[in-house]
């Protein structure tokens, strides 16, 4: 089993693996278990692309625990996470979808600074 890091950071977001709290400068929320595991899988990649099946494998480490429609469960969690992120970090950080490839985090503040 992969060892979890106590705290993951991406842009202005921090995810605490002990409390399952996602924190931003404008608020924090304790995530439900699956939402937390999806966010952890995405944040661990630090902006690199993760397919839905890769995220599902990380969330449900044992095939017998994986729900029949795990891809739907992953997408549902991402929708909830995007809603929270929109309220707390606005357009600075986002979960982006690359059609038919997967998801990744984008720190738009860094992109804007790189352009200037």
From TrEMBL:
SUPFAM superfamilies: C-terminal effector domain of the bipartite response regulators. Keywords: DNA-binding. Residues 5-107 bind DNA. The keyword DNA-binding applies. It comes from the Bacteria. Coiled coil: none annotated. Residues 5-107 form the OmpR/PhoB-type domain. Pfam families: Trans_reg_C. This is OmpR/PhoB-type domain-containing protein. It comes from Bombella mellum. The lineage of its organism: Bacteria, Pseudomonadati, Pseudomonadota, Alphaproteobacteria, Acetobacterales.
């Amino acid at each position: 089993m992969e060892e979890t890091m106590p705290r993951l950071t991406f842009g202005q977001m921090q995810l605490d693996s002990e409390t399952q709290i996602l924190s931003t400068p404008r608020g924090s929320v304790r995530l439900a278990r699956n939402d937390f595991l999806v966010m952890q899988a995405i944040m661990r990649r630090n902006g690199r692309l993760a397919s839905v099946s890769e995220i599902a494998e990380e969330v449900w480490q044992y095939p017998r625990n994986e729900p029949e429609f795990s891809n739907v469960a992953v997408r549902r969690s991402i929708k909830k996470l995007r809603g929270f992120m929109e309220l707390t970090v606005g357009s600075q950080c986002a979960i982006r979808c690359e059609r038919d490839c997967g998801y990744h985090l984008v720190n738009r503040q860094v992109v804007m600074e790189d352009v200037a």
